[in-house]
Amino acid sequence: xxxxxxxxxxxxxxxxxxxxxxxxxxxxxxxxxxxxxxxxxxxxxxxxxxxxxxxxxxxxxxxxxxxxxxxxxxxxxxxxxxxxxxxxxxxxxxxxxxxxxxxxxxxxxxxxxxxxxxxxxxxxxxxxxxxxxxxxxxxxxxxxxxxxxxxxxxxxxxxxxxxxxxxxxxxxxxxxxxxxxxxxxxxxxxxxxxxxxxxxxxxxxxxxxxxxxxxxxxxxxxxxxxxxxxxxxxxxxx
Length: 238
Description:
Layout: E1 2-7, E2 11-17, E3 25-31, H1 41-52, E4 56-60, H2 78-93, E5 98-106, H3 108-115, E6 122-126, E7 141-142, E8 147-148, H4 153-162, E9 175-180, H5 188-197, E10 201-206, H6 216-232
Parallel strand pairs: 3-4, 3-5, 5-6, 6-9, 9-10
Antiparallel strand pairs: 1-2, 2-4, 7-8
Helix pairs in contact: 1-6
């Protein structure tokens, strides 16, 4: 494993994990969601599986969150996260080890990834967000960590200005929309609506009520699907 640091407004910390071999590799860039971080269980297990399947994996923490990157929560901005993701994408694409880039975004990370999908060869969303999160007040508390966060009004304003829905019809890359049937945070109906708008998308609904996946069997189920789907799309990647 190799670590990297990118400088934007804050230092962005990330990791590169490669399989055996010389490469270049199909590279999966994991993009966490709101209050997420790169070492969440779902990302750790997905990373391990992808590496065994011959993919390289890049994961990082957005600033002002619970991960290793700099910044206080009160300084969080959607616009800054968009810029940070763009910076990481450019870093990966010019690194020399990336043959094809697959963006895999969870929750809010799914929407942020969709906004940048024109820079990638394929897009996977996991319990993705496809509409403005007007229920953002629900995200001020992280149940598992038992931590309460104070969401500044400036974050809401920035979100409304910058969290735009992608121009669906202009995306011509392979897209997989994966969503838990019983997701209690982001309704599965959003996945069905997004599938209708993404002309090149496939829909994968799996049995679970978790938004952030913690059940290992479920994580392995989606990992196998993501891997097989990506391999099946290699010929369509430019």
